[in-house]
Amino acid sequence: MPKKLTFFQVVTAAVNDIAKHGFDNVARVRKWVEAIRQAATAEMVNSATVQAKLGGFLRGAYNRLINRGLILKQHPGMNKFTLAQVKPSLRAELDKRILASANLIKLNREKAIEDTLRRFEGWSTSIPKGGSKVVDKNDEKANVVKSLKQLPFVERRVIIDQGHKFTASLNQILAEDGGAIAARWVSNWRQRNYNYREDHKERDAKVYAIRDSWAHKAGYINKGAGYTDEITQPAEEPFCRCFYEYIYHLEDLPPAMLTQKGREAEDQANAMMQQQ
Questions:
Q1: pTM, rounded to two decimals
Q2: Three state DSSP letters for the chain
Q3: 275 and 258, same structural domain?
Q4: Which of 66, 114, 198, 201 qualifies as a FRET site for 134, CA 20 to 30 Å off?
């Protein structure tokens, strides 16, 4: 039985053949397109392996943030009892995120293969019948294999990005169920080699009101730097590492965010605590 060719060997044979014969008929191109497709699919790391790695990464994040309670660092004022009450919703988010992430990996793989075939087909149909002696075969091979060569890096970035999105989703669910009234934006723009967005840097440390929270409905707070639903959320945009620190009590807000009614409510609360 002849030894099965690697993906790169198939691409090399395809480029050599087209360079020699050119686009003399559709069948020749189709033959190589199918051969490249099969070789690319066989060359990839098993998708189940990548999905298992991603699932393990997200489960690890869930265990660290929820089971060990580290998520409470971003929710000053919230207790473990409230976290325990919200756990079913947080667990459902884990299952949903694993499923969505697996589908994203599948789509990225399909796109990488289609990009590869499109590059080869576009190049091969540009070579005149009879072939060409001026073709730079090495350049053409490098161009064809580009998407597949980058795929492992892309998949690693997807796993990391999905981790950030998952964490942001858990925080949002906990904030909504726990009654957060505002959120302070935290940007990692100082982090070395982080390709931050300039508008995210400008949001750093600003406090945004949560529309229709109990404090907002009561007229105790103004919108501060704005409402959270007026801007993109942390980790919403690709590879964003920003996050919110959620605020639950009037006394933890910047003084300028309290309305007159809010200041009076805070004064009353302080007076009651002193009487106890």
A1: 0.82
A2: CCCCCCHHHHHHHHHHHHHHHCCCCHHHHHHHHHHHHHHHHHHCCCHHHHHHHHHHHHHHHHHHHHHCCHHHHHCCCCCHHHHHHHHHHHHHHHHHHHHHHHHHHHHHHHHHHHHHHHHHHHHHCCCCCCCCCCCCHHHHHHHHHHHHHHHHHHHHHHHHHHHHHHHHHHHHHHHHHHCCCEEEEECCCCCCCCCCCHHHHHHCCCEEECCCCHHHHCCCECCECCEHHHCCCCCCCCCCCCEEEEECCHHHCCHHHECHHHHHHHHHHHHHHHHC
A3: yes
A4: 114
